[in-house]
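Lab notebook, design round three. We kept the backbone fixed and only want residue identities now. Task for the bench partner: fill in a sequence for the structure below.
Input structure tokens:
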């Protein structure tokens, strides 16, 4: 059965006017077109709805039973239509973004403030979550997009590379190595890393695996006694307190004159990795996603990262 709201409106128009001619005028269609619509409706319902003479139109018993049902259908649709329209408009202006806590703390505040000026009607919701949870919520549709390091293909998800980041050595200002500002930015070779316990992520972390591989190649194996943490924020906090140096992504570096740490770009080689925006494959995205992405890239460029934007599946 394929009855539309237009079928029910046409049927009620005939009922109320008791005339196919006047009903056709109300519906802004031709009388033959209205007659064909009623015939189609009767065919789908397998019953006659009207008894017609040259002068009058009368409902059959089946037609009388249909009137309250048709009226209910039309009333329900007309009631819900503006509600759905409002929801659709809210959906177009609302963006739900998932990002890891360190990115939410270091970059997203600047994006939020820029959007407040450039896109004041954009309703931005930022969820600071572990990377696996960001991925899960994007796949389930709870989030419109996610931000993070996704070096491998993720099922049901489209990846868009946003920028490349480097790795920084970070230590307390009063640490023994005492990085000197010989040019800007400071630099340190992997082979020159201090032979002390580092504050690091757990070995299961993809970031830490990449760092360990590079340290091993430089023959700077991690000494026993290093501290393992779950989050980049914890690495920075521990290093700032003087517990030990650490290695972090450049986008996570704390900035400002009062930060109690110094950083240096790790070189020979410079190790770079991509940062992605992920969305659920095949899902229609809010119109404001591109405005958000453009603003995010502006903030990233201001921080000195290398941006790019070629979509990737």
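Proposed sequence:
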């Amino acid at each position: 059965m394929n009855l539309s709201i237009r079928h029910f409106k046409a049927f009620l128009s005939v009922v109320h006017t008791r005339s196919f001619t006047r009903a056709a005028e109300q519906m802004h269609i031709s009388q033959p077109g209205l007659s064909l619509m009623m015939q189609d409706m009767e065919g789908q319902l397998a019953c006659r709805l009207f008894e017609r003479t040259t002068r009058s139109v009368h409902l059959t018993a089946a037609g009388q039973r249909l009137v309250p049902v048709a009226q209910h259908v039309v009333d329900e649709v007309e009631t819900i239509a503006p509600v759905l329209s409002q929801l659709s408009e809210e959906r177009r202006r609302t963006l739900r973004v998932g990002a890891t806590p360190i990115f939410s703390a270091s970059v997203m505040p600047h994006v939020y403030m820029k959007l407040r000026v450039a896109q004041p009607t954009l309703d931005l919701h930022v969820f600071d979550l572990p990377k696996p949870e960001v991925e899960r919520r994007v796949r389930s549709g709870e989030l419109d997009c996610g931000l993070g390091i996704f070096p491998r293909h993720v099922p049901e998800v489209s990846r868009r590379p946003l920028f490349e980041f480097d790795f920084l050595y970070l230590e307390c200002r009063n640490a023994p190595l005492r990085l000197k500002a010989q040019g800007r930015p400071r630099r340190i070779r992997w082979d020159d890393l201090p032979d002390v316990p580092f504050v690091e992520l757990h070995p299961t972390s993809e970031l830490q695996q990449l760092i360990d591989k590079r340290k091993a190649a430089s023959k700077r194996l991690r000494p026993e006694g290093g501290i393992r943490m779950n989050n980049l924020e914890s690495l920075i906090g521990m290093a700032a307190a003087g517990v030990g140096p650490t290695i972090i992504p450049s986008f996570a570096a704390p900035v400002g004159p009062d930060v109690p740490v110094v950083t240096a770009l790790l070189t020979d080689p410079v190790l770079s990795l991509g940062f992605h925006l992920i969305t659920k494959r095949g899902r229609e995205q809010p119109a404001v996603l591109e405005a958000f992405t453009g603003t995010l890239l502006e903030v990233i460029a201001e921080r000195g990262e290398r941006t790019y934007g070629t979509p990737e599946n």
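Keep this in mind before ordering anything: The chain has a mean pLDDT of 86.
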